[in-house]
Design goal:
Two copies of one chain form a homodimer. Chain A is built from four helices and no strands. Chain A has 90 residues and is an all-alpha fold. Chain A has a single domain (2-82), classed as Up-down Bundle (Monooxygenase). Chain A is elongated and about 45 Å long. Chain A binds chain B through residues 2-3, 6-7, 9-21, 23-25, 28, 30-35, 37-39, 41-42, 44-49, 51-52, 55-56, and chain B through 2-3, 6-7, 9-21, 23-25, 28, 30-35, 37-39, 41-42, 44-49, 51-52, 55-56.
């Protein structure tokens, strides 16, 4: 029971974590400090976890990592949209 | 076998993902675009996964999430050190 609650808490926090970052980038229209490599690596990682879940037919793994994949894909998208290299102002 | 390889790939990429972000912040000395809430949420999440692993006596879960906890704690640290609110230049 306590194990399950701990696992559910862990799943929720790791899955939703990227959302405040997506929100911040959209609000500030700035993503320069963000590492594309971090979110590319997370995409590969949670994508692989999703495949692992499918192979094991494990729905909690598929659901949490599938959602994470979508959220991280959104993050990569806003990073690419709002990332402008620093340039001297004219 | 293929399942195990997929799980190992997933573990490696999700665990190391934050390192390029830590490196980028240290290199550029800039962390303003980064959401503290994202990494606080990840800390709670992977911390909970570590507790879950301890409760289940599951070493791969303890190891990968314990490492993630350390890496994310480093990220929170550099975020706090290098995050300066935007101020008009004097």
């Amino acid at each position: 029971m306590f194990e399950n609650l701990t696992g559910i808490t862990a799943s929720i926090f790791t899955t939703i974590a990227v959302l405040p970052q997506v929100y911040k980038v959209i609000k500030t229209k700035s993503a320069e400090d963000i590492s594309l490599w971090m979110f590319a690596s997370l995409l590969i990682g949670v994508g692989s976890w999703t495949v692992y879940g499918i192979l094991k037919n494990d729905w909690p793994i598929i659901l949490t990592n599938g959602l994470s994949f979508l959220f991280n894909a959104a993050m990569v998208y806003v990073k690419l949209v709002y990332s402008n290299p620093k340039q001297p102002k004219p």
